[in-house]
Amino acid sequence: MAKVHPNAAAVAAELGTPTRRAAAGQDQEPEPPTTAVLTVWRKSLLFNCDGFTVYDADGDLAFRVDCYARRHAEVVLMDAAGAPLLTVRRKRLSLAERWHVYHGDAAASSSRPPVLSVRRHVGGGLRGASGGGKTLAHVVAASSSSADAGGGEAFVVEGSYGRRACAVRDARGDVVAEVRRKEAVGDDVFRLVVSPRLGAPLAMGLVVVLDEMFAGRGSARSWLRLRGSC
Hints:
Helices cover 20% and strands 33% of the residues. A hairpin with a 5-residue loop joins β2 and β3. The protein has 230 residues and is an alpha+beta fold. The longest helix has 16 residues, at 8-23. It has helices at 8-23, 106-109, 200-214, 220-229; strands spanning 36-41, 50-55, 61-67, 74-79, 84-90, 98-103, 116-120, 135-141, 153-160, 165-169, 175-181, 189-194. The protein is built from four helices and twelve strands. The chain has a twelve-stranded antiparallel β-barrel.
């Protein structure tokens, strides 16, 4: 049985407290009441795992990712109880680096169309459709048709994931999710602000995709290099 990090309770209290202060407006402007503010820790609570631990505005565990393999062709986002919510899977044999996000666990997702399809931005200009900043990725939210076929709503991810300052914008340029730095605690802890238009699980799924695309997990050299370029 995998062992839980012995400081899990202390970490929850430490990471939850700044988020509660933010919700109260003590360290920044308060978010709209319908906006979800999550604190994301880029670490699994289990030993010998990569992953994420995510807390809500009350400091309670909201989501978790626990990856045993060093190379991640597939990542599962779970709720606090460990039930799979989303499966993030890299698309094989694709000309562009592309990831698909499915509802549920890996076994069931194989026969379903992805709910999101995310393609890393390559070539062309660096400005996004809104002109807001450097383009990192393009996202298609599938409707009844496959995301690969271009169905559904389009989003663009702009900014810098390495610097923990990026936003997901819709076709009108409105921000539906945003990654923000938490200066006092370093790059491995950051804030995820989510509009109900996208929803917290899908926003966290996009964070997992961005981390796989840009963070160079498991390679300190790649991480330092990407901090200056992404």
